[in-house]
């Protein structure tokens, strides 16, 4: 028998906003405004002909998202997780960011999650699963793909957002900050079956942020061999260490989290499973989705 607690309701974004109290409504509205901007930007960049998917909110309190052709579901729990992300005290000085720089982490966090779901649709992961066959390895690979594509979008969004107020180094720092914070805020047990470990997700986000080139449309430089990304790869380890320290100070889990993140740098037998799984199917996904590889 289904109890009342198990019944799920779903809302359009407008209906969902209506039922929120102030000031939460304003905050969530602004999160969706930024996310929609990023979705529009992504669609224009991809020259996609399909309309943007509909966005629905489920009343479930477990943070999750789901994508299917033409539709994305986000749970209320996911929105709450993004909204409740707290900014650590002294984060500007620790990260060496200009004091007056706005850091709308909930906006960037929700955008990362929504664009991640959009990428499952846009990269036609559903169609690829028919061609390749669905398996845990396929799921790891496509989650990895969606994460990395979404990371590139957050970087482009941050470039726009801070175009007159921050350096490229600041933009990369904030991109990594926002994605790392939401990744660490999500409950790990629910993700364990489909996503790779938190350490691996952070490590792959980190390497992606290092490999992106400033000019839109220019190919990424995964081995950081060119002068631009070589320079980025020189300062980004410091940024990651500062972020790890900030997170440890905030959550008082110094040893565990810091160790988990740094462990991502040491290749182990299982460490890069998602990256390997992705390499096996990347040509097929790129061919099926006919999308740029950035
Ligand atoms: Zn996903």
Structural class: mainly alpha
Distance between the termini: 48 Å
Strand percentage lies at 5-15%
Gyration radius over CA: 19 Å
What level of helicity do the residues show? 55-70%
Give the strand order of the largest sheet, numbering strands 1, 2, ... along the chain: 1-2-4-3
**Coarse morphology:** globular
Tell me about the largest β-sheet.
4 strands, mixed
Stretches where pLDDT is under 50 for at least 5 consecutive residues are none
SSE string, helices as H and strands as E: EHHEEEHHHHHHHHHHH
Beta-strand segment tally: 4
Q: Which molecules are bound besides the chains?
A: zinc ion
Explain briefly what this protein structure is.
This protein is mostly helical. It is 62% helix and 6% strand. The longest helix is centred in the middle third of the chain and has 26 residues, at 136-161.
